[in-house]
What we know:
There is one protein chain. The protein has 305 residues and is an alpha/beta fold. It has 2 domains: 2-106 and 115-161 and 200-225, Rossmann fold (3-Layer(aba) Sandwich); 163-199 and 229-300, UDP-galactose 4-epimerase, domain 1 (Alpha-Beta Complex). It is 39% helix and 18% strand. The protein contains 12 helices and 12 strands. The strands form 3 sheets. Strands 3-2-1-4-5-6-10 form a 7-stranded parallel sheet, with helices on both faces. Strands 7-9-11 form a 3-stranded mixed sheet. A two-stranded parallel sheet has the order 8-12. The longest helix has 14 residues, at 203-216. The two termini are 37 Å apart. The structure holds NADP nicotinamide-adenine-dinucleotide phosphate.
Amino acid sequence: MNIFLTGATGYIGGSLVSRLVGDGHTVRALHRDGDRKDAVAGMGAEPVLGDLDDRDILAGEAHRADAVINAADSDHAGAVESLLDALAGTGKPLIHTSGSSIVGDASNGEYSPTVYGEDVADPGSGWEPAADKAARVAIDRTVLAGADRGVRSVVLCNSLIYGHGLGIKTDSVQLPRLVRQARASGVTRHVGPGRNVWSNVHLEDMCELYVRALGQAPAGSFYFVENGEESYRAMSEAISDALGLGEPQPWSVEDAVAEWGYEVAVYALGSNSRVRAHRARTELGWAPKHASVTDWIRNEVSAEG
Ligand SMILES: NC(=O)c1ccc[n+]([C@@H]2O[C@H](COP(=O)([O-])OP(=O)(O)OC[C@H]3O[C@@H](n4cnc5c(N)ncnc54)[C@H](OP(=O)(O)O)[C@@H]3O)[C@@H](O)[C@H]2O)c1
């Protein structure tokens, strides 16, 4: 299959390039930094220089591809509109990457019992996101509505992804930030009491789900991507064990924002995001292999980095 992919130099996109090329697909991969052309080619992809704002480039690549994967930016509405316009009436797949902070509750590290299923995305579900997440959800809904325009459009809504990146960028968004802060300061920190819980998934299992969605997901379908959940307190304890540090310590949300910025501190690290990937398992036969983020941290994170 000829696949056009955005985000080739990123954690998710680079890992997908590696998996898809390994599976024998031809991948034309968008990168916005000309200096990284050789690195993209080194992954076995055909480099395409351009930005998500380059409507003509996205349209041209979508026209020549059999399928498109948007793995660059869950919050870039213009790219989604360009790709949908180009693919309208073709029946080709558009796999869009979203993130489960859409259900995040900004709890400052406190626990929430609320668990979300994929029906949140169904028309008429009545669910609405927090104001901070409305724009991302609007993009997801635009993608899903692509089904009415003759696009086999799919949203994969990833939870916390762990695992070493398989492409150029090896670090994900959430755990590496906690680890870097702990290594630099000698104290592992979580937001508030760290009782907040995030669903999570290993990168290789995530890649497998993208492949399955590419092959068989129906038009207009939304999937959460998770294989377990854990509290930030438990993940922080695993980080302390891996780095040989003492008891993790709570951080006020103000201190966390100063270190990581608002979005990361309040949503990526300070909220609950508890979701269930029911559809991926039942509709696509997805059977993830990795089950424990804390085992992974203890086995794969080291003091040296
Ligand atoms: N990692 C996770 O756990 C996770 C979970 C759920 C959702 N997400 C979401 O999924 C998306 C991708 O995540 P990631 O972890 O792979 O992020 P990442 O490592 O930062 O990668 C982002 C990629 O997109 C490219 N990109 C960004 N803006 C672009 C633009 N305007 N034009 C062209 N390329 C652009 C980046 O290029 P450069 O290298 O040039 O910057 C990079 O290749 C993000 O929106 C993230 O919020 C991530």
